Amino acid sequence: MFHLAWFLSWQVQSWNGMWSGEGGTEWNHPELYVDMTRSLERAGFDYVMFEDGAFVPDSYGGNHDWWLARARSVPKQDPWQLLPVLAQHTERLGLVGTMSTSFYPPFMAARTAATVDHLSHGRAGVNLVTSHNTRTAQNFGHDDIFEHDLRYDMADEWIDLVKQLWGSWDADALVQDRERNVYVDGSRVRPVDFQGKWHRSRGPLNTLAPPQGSPVVCQAGGSGPGRALAARHCDTLLAQVESVEAMKEYRADVRARMVEAGRDPDSCKVLFIVSPVLGETQADAEAKNERVLAGFKADISVNLANMSYASGVDFAQYDLDAPFPDLSGTNATRSSMVMMSVNAQGMTLRQAAESNVRRSVELVGTPDAVASQMGEIVDEVGGDGFLISGNVNRRYVAEITEGLVPELRKRGLTRDGYTHEQFRDNLLEF
Fold it and tell me: How does residue 68 score in pLDDT terms, banded at 50, 70 and 90?
């Protein structure tokens, strides 16, 4: 069996096409996500993960006009405000929000996540990002973003402090001893007195211990420092790679790093990002996929802007018919830069923009065929599952949860219901 999760943002999902909802405003209200998470829970998904960013992009074209006109990555809401709402409408699904280790104060992060863990009865998770955009840094009072490897050193200290704050209350500190008139036993609550290179906090938290002990820690670590951070701290890891061989290499590397860090490698589940394209027939699915690929050629600004977002480099400045530019000097998401550069090797910028240079394993076909392929992939890789990524509209969610998942269940590949009440317990079940 393998795990399933869904990757999305609390932002405009689609607004000017078929299945775009109520005039492009439905994304801004909880009902869409309530319906979605209920469907995911019926389908036995482990979790839903909301990525986030705290800036208005302007990396393509030298200003923010393109991003606002196309509603790409903006407007965007803070997912931590949505998670408690979703918790009220679900019972077992893990709920993961994103926090920037570069800019989110550790005490605030620990307290917020612990609070949501209580509100969800032990189903909260924190997705760690180091942030890679200069505009984010400027929104938090810095001139520029911190250097790539430094961000991961800072993140290591950040999550160490956050975990110590989560542990500053013993699970049995709440005694409610009416005879002694003692609500919390003070001997079971401790300051952490943390003094690091970048962070300081006396502690303890002023919340009860999180129901899970600590909320589930998630990360999308692709670079060497990212993988090292994940090996030390994460319970689940997201990866975007484009082949089964790359999946095997990635998972084996992370598991080896976990052993070096003194951890059981089975205690972190590696999920690979995929976007299945499903059809009633193989021909139907392939035609649908061709329409998606044709979209890259019809409007190359979308891919150019996506590459600008990931790299911080304005691709509008380059000659489209010149060779794909060198990205080695950028300070952004290093693994994305490597993937784009390798996939665009020998191409002009135009050719790269007309293709998909940030690919994942292709899953195109009927639910039956795709379910078989997913099973074969996990057999070869060794685990642990898939993170679905795609526009959030009711049709696509239904295609996955009511079309693909039943085929997976027929093969015994995914769970049919939950054994445990809390997120981490379900994640570690297999």
Answer: very high
Radius of gyration of the chain from Cα atoms?
22
Beta strands in 20-65 (DSSP E): 47-51
Cα torsion 174, 178, 180, 181: sign: positive
CB distance 223 to 335 below 8 Å: yes
Q: Which two tokens stand for residue 10?
A: 């609390």
pLDDT score of 333 more than 90: no
Decide if 96 contacts 47 (C-beta within 8 A).
yes
Q: Cα–Cα distance between 95 and 86 in angstroms, integer?
A: 8
pTM of the predicted model, to two decimals? 0.93
Reported confidence tier of residue 292, pLDDT bands at 50, 70, 90: confident
Where do we find the tokens 């003692």?
A: 182
Res 135 pLDDT > 70: yes
Tell me the C-alpha distance between 125 and 271, whole Å: 15
Q: How far apart are CA 363 and CA 345, in angstroms?
A: 24
Contact (Cβ atoms closer than 8 angstroms) between residue 106 and residue 162:
yes
CB atoms within 10 A of CB 11: 20
